[in-house]
């Protein structure tokens, strides 16, 4: 039995087709990434699978239960963490957890024990009785995820869980995702952070304009565009480098600035290394480092969507 099964899901909003008959399945215990630019259909897919909206066509199943015909039994199996925090700021962290647990009919002893564990896991034990209006964005996000876990779900939907968060909150949340995966919890993760999907997900689906462009493991997706390789180089002094000059090197098909380094896209790395060396000598620059890289998940995303890797979630 699949944890999630989407069968020819369609969704229209008037004349706008948000989903154009998408189909995919997620296995039990899998961490499944759902990537796409704004408006690609990520949020609409989650809303259908969690019973918040009905599809125009097709069907969805959660552990074999139809998300429309068996909405309540299906929702008992899941936890949902939306992109925006849904905590009540006039309540304490503890009160928010207790309120959510009651909505799921979690018994008193279980909800109190689980809440204490979750507050510890998310580094919030010391703020247990504080009103959440004084929490930072990262703390609110961590509490939101804890609320999504209070009913001990078999399947967790995470919509952009680390978007815009501080480093500490990012690390805590990623560690929790890995821990849940190790415990056999199925995770459906939408993220604009392609590197996050690369390190956390067993498989990734790329959705664009309401259609699935590709589904596979991150490594296999990279291999589908093996011709997209790159040279990453750092110069001294860095400010003297002109992108247009590097773009003119033979066999370079694209130039991207990556912090203090420059990435040159090419199908012929050896030829570009020679060209970069000649450019540095002519320009009086010193090469600090130079590395050959294979295609990244970001390259796959760009190739399949025609957009840059900064397209985030939140659209229909």
Topology record:
Elements: E1 4-13, E2 16-26, E3 31-35, H1 42-49, E4 57-62, E5 65-66, H2 71-75, E6 78-81, H3 93-103, H4 108-121, H5 137-149, E7 155-159, H6 167-182, E8 186-190, H7 194-200, E9 203-208, E10 211-216, H8 218-223, E11 229-236, H9 243-247, E12 252-258, E13 261-266, H10 269-283, E14 286-293, H11 297-305
Parallel strand pairs: 3-8, 3-9, 6-7, 7-8
Antiparallel strand pairs: 1-2, 1-4, 4-5, 9-10, 11-13, 11-14, 12-13
Q: What would you note in describing this structure?
A:
There is one protein chain. The chain has 316 residues and is an alpha/beta fold. The chain has 2 domains: 4-222, 3-Layer(aba) Sandwich (Rossmann fold), CATH 3.40.50; 229-294, YebC, transcriptional regulation domain (Alpha-Beta Plaits), CATH 3.30.70. It has helices spanning 42-49, 71-75, 93-103, 108-121, 137-149, 167-182, 194-200, 218-223, 243-247, 269-283, 297-305; strands at 4-13, 16-26, 31-35, 57-62, 65-66, 78-81, 155-159, 186-190, 203-208, 211-216, 229-236, 252-258, 261-266, 286-293. The strands form 3 sheets. The protein has a 6-stranded mixed beta sheet with strand order 6-7-8-3-9-10, sandwiched between helices. Helix 3 runs parallel beside helix 5. The longest helix is centred in the middle third of the chain and has 16 residues, at 167-182. The protein is globular and about 75 Å long. The model is unreliable at 309-316 (pLDDT under 50).
Entry keywords:
Rossmann fold; Alpha-Beta Plaits; six-stranded mixed β-sheet; four-stranded antiparallel β-sheet; 11 helices
Quick description:
This protein has 316 residues and is an alpha/beta fold.
